[in-house]
Amino acid sequence: MADLDTFRAETRAWLEANCPAECRGPLDNDEDRVWGGRNPTFKTSAHKQWMDVMAARGWTAPQWPREYGGGGLDREEAKILASELRRIDAQMPLSSFGIWMLGPALLQFGTEEQKKRFLPEIVRGEIRWCQGYSEPGAGSDLAAIQTRAEDRGDHWIINGQKIWTSYADKADWIFCLIRTDPEAPKHLGISFVLFDMATKGVTTKPIELISGKSAFCETFFDDVRVEKENLVGTLNRGWDVAKALLAHERTMIGGLGDMGRPMGQVAVDSIGLDDAGRLDEPMLRAKIAELEIDAAAFRLSMERVGDQVKAKQVSPAIASMLKYYGSELNKRRHELAMAAGGSDALEWESERSHKGTPARDWLRTKANSIEGGTSEVQLNIIAKHLLQLPGA
After folding, report:
1. Cα distances (Å, whole numbers) of residue 191 to 176, 194, 337
2. Which terminus of the chain is more exposed, N or C, with fewer CB under 10 A?
């Protein structure tokens, strides 16, 4: 405990000295996130500074091994770092599919050369990734993918299409499922490969959402050459990698349920206080209190599951539970934000509401119960693998 107390004190002092004031407090909108990559954008120079100093300590990926650029922290130290970041309301220094999804898969399935090549770049925010999973005919039934690879000896030629590829038009590289053995049963014959989005034959087309924003894309592969050294894991056993990565993705999406400004403050800013110093809307006050209690319980559940994962005492299907509940919690949070904002929250283009951020963000959350596996799929997994219900 003394060592952890020392670590907390040192971490607190370092964060206070190194986290710029501009990088504390909620983001104005999701577009202000730092994604890194070959052509990164930053809201301010302070946001680049914040990413760089955190990456230099490996704290953009605090539990990854130091030899791959990570922070080398153990579970308890990582908890302390997270709590100290919350204490000063620090913004995330780097948002990254490489950290949230691909990195853990590479640590488990990648070759030593792949780890040394890609992981340090991910930690430093020098490479931005997208995910090539879903296809027009393979969404919830992901193993039905038809994007195919033709064997050309030391490389493949890939043809096909992916859809709902988040930020494909801004990504540098893609981690992708392709069918390398069309004669095998559908869960077999799939391989997990990596390739540069600048490769000849790769094109993207944004998909406009109901919110007016376009994070999702269609992605097309026309005779794309991919070297076989970019195969992750075993040939034709990419489904094993895909399942492991999906667990990380679903946990990441579930974490949305524990993000955002405290809803009470959002409501106070819009509605104000009554004579007793309480939110001047009793029904909304009760709903916000219920949400914050549920969010606190969910946060503790996430920590408990993390400890169970470390001790190898939890089913991989628990990620489906976190994904489902976190998605529902995030949707509730934005429903309440709309209720608290009143007519102002309905504005679509306005300087007062950051050009329609509340309404656009509320509409965006509707996709939480689809992306990463629909809620119906998650409930089926929970019923079968966690509750072991008959007939599930």
Report:
1. 8, 10, 42
2. N
Task: Tell me the pairing of strands 148-151 and 155-162.
Answer: antiparallel
DSSP codes of every residue in 305-355: HHHHHHTT-S-TTHHHHHHHHHHHHHHHHHHHHHHHHGGGGG-SS-TTTTT
Helix axes of 318-341 and 282-310: crossing angle, nearest 10 degrees:
160
Q: Is 218 one of the catalytic residues?
A: no
Catalytic residue (choose from 84, 249, 328, 371): 249
The residue with tokens 């640590």 is: 107
The pLDDT averaged over each successive group of 10 residues in the chain (392 residues) is 90 97 84 91 95 97 97 93 94 95 94 97 97 89 92 96 94 97 91 98 90 84 97 95 76 58 68 74 84 88 78 77 88 87 74 60 84 84 88 69
Residues recorded for the chain: 392
CB atoms within 10 A of CB 110: 23
Find out whether 123 and 55 touch, Cβ atoms under 8 Å.
yes
Q: Using an 8 Å Cβ cutoff, are 47 and 34 in contact? A: yes
H/E segment holding residue 116: helix 112-123
Residue 101 φ/ψ, nearest 5 degrees: -125, -60
pLDDT of residue 251: 63
Radius of gyration of the chain (CA): 22
Residue 15's SS3 state is helix
pTM: 0.81
The residue type found at 199 is T
Judge whether 124 and 181 are in contact, CB under 8 Å.
no
282-310 and 75-87 helices, crossing angle to 10° = 160
Pick the closest to residue 77 from 316, 248, 310 (CA basis). Answer: 310
Cα separation, 330 vs 248, whole angstroms: 18
Give the tokens for residue 51.
Answer: 């990413």
- Cα–Cα dist 362/48, whole Å: 28
Taking the C-alpha atoms of residue 50 and residue 379, their distance in angstroms, rounded to an integer, is 39
Maximum pairwise Cα distance, the chain: 77
